[in-house]
Known about the structure:
The chain has about 120 residues and is mainly β. The chain has strands spanning about 5, 10-15, 20-25, 35-40, 45-50, 55-60, 65-70, 75-80, 90-100, 105, 115-119. It is built from no helices and 11 strands. The strands form 2 sheets. Strands 2, 4, 5, 6, 9, 10 and 11 form a 7-stranded mixed β-sheet that branches.
Amino acid sequence: QVHMMESGGASVQAGGSLNLSCTVSGHEITLDPVGWYRQPPGKAREAIAIVSIFHRPSYAKSVEGRFTIARDNGANTVYLYMTNLKSDDTGVYYCNVGDWTFGPIFNTWGQGTTVTVSA
Length: 119
């Protein structure tokens, strides 16, 4: 059974930075794209960053230029480096395996990690 364990969330002021990590167990991510998803309060979860099997990153427009996604296949882990945080970045952050076209391939999600950005 696949499990995702996200960590690194915190409360920060606008303009600050955070680094998130997500370790996947029960499934090797080497041959799959992996991504980060965000669920703002009262809104639906959305994909914000995907990294391909060739380590090529792509981003939602809302985070492009501020966030960096990276993967470590050896550790079965995906990272999200966030800078210049804004209040709109507030939400619960999750990771999953999948791409922009087909979305997350696993129906189960981790507990997520909460990011709160105050003005």
